[in-house]
Specification:
- The structure is a homotetramer.
- By secondary structure, the first copy, chain A, is of the alpha/beta class.
- The first copy, chain A, has a single domain (about 10-230), classed as Aldolase class I (TIM Barrel, Alpha-Beta Barrel).
- Chain A has ten helices and eight strands.
- The first copy, chain A, has helices at about 25-40, 55-60, 85-90, 105-115, 130-135, 155-160, 160-175, 190-200, 210, 215-230; strands at about 10-15, 45, 65, 95, 120-125, 140-145, 180-185, 205.
- Chain A has an eight-stranded parallel sheet.
- In chain A, helix 1 (about 25-40) runs parallel beside helix 10 and helix 8 (about 190-200) runs parallel beside helix 10 (about 215-230).
- Chains in contact: A-B, A-D, B-C, C-D.
- Chains A and B meet through helix 2 and helix 3 of A and helix 2 and helix 3 of B.
Chain lengths: ~230, ~230, ~230, ~230
């Protein structure tokens, strides 16, 4: 059972609906991530599909995130994702408002409120500096800034738009100083992670850069090294 | 592992996001349903929340349905429900277009097509006779007719609107004669199930009538008796 | 005031949100269409933006369609498109479920029902043969078949996918024999219109092919000639 | 043609899809509002349905708002509400994210950005204090705070939840000090308006309280008196 706390810098891996990260492939990838964590001590968290949450939460010790929750409590909601259910399945947190699963603003506010009441760590996703500031006002623990046009491109936001990352951190913290900022979109290497951390973010949210890598272990080790070498400074 | 085929008449239980049917409660309810099936031979299927699909598919032999799938194949779809993933988790089928999780018509067509290609049994939900006919044209294996105003009321559609059930069967079969019709909304007793079968439906889709019953075993036994006594005729 | 009835073959022009067809440009384009109609007798209808419906309905005699309606009657619906309102503004009909403004199936059923009660001509849009059959079951006066991948390409559905058009006509009419079929997507010339009519459709739904043409009058005249020369046969 | 500037305190009347405020009824109501404005000098603005915007903008001198805009510029967007189009039709501003027409947060950000570029006054609607703060970060000129549970009840937010109004003003202005705050939901009388202004809001957004009043002129006069008597203080 996963018992780990979230630590920063954080490497959060979104499994999306990729074949390489579904079902038994998800478990295989999670085991690799767990080994890299055990070797390096860097906090690696995983966001698998809903029906793989329990499997991963039972089989690895890493923190597990849902990719989305609906702003609901127990009741007559067919086909929705109940925060209580993902928590009981073993999740320690959830993404909210990923650019591929956006919500209305009142739904984001409610999803954050309900998730926090349950002790789930909330990662609200933003596509711009002003949206980051708006999300900060809703009180998530973490904001991940991801320009949609860079998602899946291999062009790292931390290198292509450094001012977006540093500006977002400043603006979001001016609204809510306790919020943590991750940097997403296009992260594929340790160098991208290092750039993200240098700009002041406290970690990365990534997906295809790791999930679809030829050798995910090597890529993840490279990324953790960017974290540990910085810590050593 | 669930290995059962769907048989008609079918009792399909939608767990929704009810507390009584989430996580360990879902498993407890599934075990009761399995026992009733073993005693009576009536086909009972269960539609738990996404993150409980694998748990139930591993622990009981009944057919397990997802409550919804998105019209997608493997790829970059954060927070979506991938048909391939629910199948690998052990589902044998899925609800589509439940009144609490409605889809655009092109999404329904695509969700049915993808699910069928994977061998998943599709249950498309309709709220009226004309929508039933429209869904029949999209080729699901099963259509469930549920007037939204009766859902959760305890007023059985098979008794409150008998002409809706019989009319729907006729109209839907005129468009697609191989489609099976379930009758949903307000089903709480064996008497309701018997009424549904008399009208020509091949089973029921129910939720709170069983999930929130004081003694689900007694209610489900009563419902299966309506099936077996009819079969005896 | 527009007093014309819809006649087949029908050339229905969707103004979308194109600059060339907004506000005073919409009126200019409508005047050209009216002149071509007056010269040729071919039924040309226009679907401008909501806030241009009244302007066009007052200034030209052609039938005016809304691009969308919501499935509502009078009430507390902020930001929705009320069928009663577009009718009072002068519309004679409406598109429903255009691929750029898709609806849930129960909403389509209700939007068609409400519009028909008000005497509005309904044009339901489909992206495939099976969706066309499904829509036919919901009773619109017209179905327009538009493969989304051809919209705006200049590759006419009537030439690229002739079997889609003829197959759709057959399938949709087997469900509802009184429905009229238009053929959309990629229509840019009289030749495309002629191909559409030869395949058995009763007209075309087009947009950029006319709206963004260098000389819309010449293009529209060419299209009407395809209609009149066919009628002469 | 409407040439008025927005002035505070502002009385903004949402016509929704009410029968009493559609088409010719909308015009009749607008004429009454114009007379009351002319008599009292209080700024009264009107938000009619899309297809009535041009009619009202041509016939009365009051500022006209759209009830919603989509976050788009000119292009292939069927059934959407183009900010450029409502501006050309005569609107001076628009509601955004009304509780009956909510948007994703990235859409709100974009709709505000596009509208402001066109010189349209933006009124972003919030259902809670935290959502108000979030919206403030997106830079609208006005935020209207409306608890959905009070809409249409006749229970004024300014009296039922005074701390919501004053708290919202404080929180929203801490994020964006130039934003103006309106108070919506349940406003039916001059007394409600007076309460709203005493709490620090700069006006009201109301709908049924005026639109469905037996004598809208008397109600509106009463409301404007609450404004003028306060100004006199």
């Amino acid at each position: 059972m996963n018992s780990q706390k979230i630590k920063y810098p954080l490497i959060l891996v979104n499994f999306k609906a990729y074949r390489e990260a579904t079902g038994s492939n998800a478990l295989r990838l999670a085991k690799i991530a767990e080994e890299v964590h055990n070797e390096t001590g860097v906090c690696v968290s995983l966001a698998p599909q809903f029906c793989d949450i329990r499997l991963l939460a039972e089989e690895v010790t890493l923190p597990i995130f849902a990719q989305h929750v609906d702003p609901i409590s127990f009741g007559g909601f067919t086909g929705s994702v109940l925060p209580d259910a993902i928590k009981e399945a073993g999740a320690t947190g959830t993404l909210i408002n990923h650019s591929e699963r956006q919500l209305k603003i009142s739904e984001i506010a409610e999803a954050i409120r309900i998730s926090k009441e349950l002790g789930l760590t909330t990662v609200a996703c933003a596509n711009s500096e002003s949206v980051s500031a708006a999300l900060a006002a809703l009180g998530p623990e973490i904001i991940s800034i991801e320009p949609p046009q860079l998602i899946g491109t291999g062009i790292a936001v931390s290198k292509a738009q450094p001012q977006l990352v540093s500006g977002t951190i400043k603006t979001a913290k001016s609204v809510n100083e306790s919020v943590h900022i991750l940097c997403g979109a296009g992260i594929t290497s340790g160098e991208d992670v290092a750039a993200a951390l240098r700009l002041g973010s406290e970690g990365v949210l990534l997906a295809s850069g790791l999930v679809k890598a030829k050798d995910p272990r090597i890529v993840l080790l490279d990324m953790t090294r960017a974290v540990t070498s910085r810590k050593g400074v």
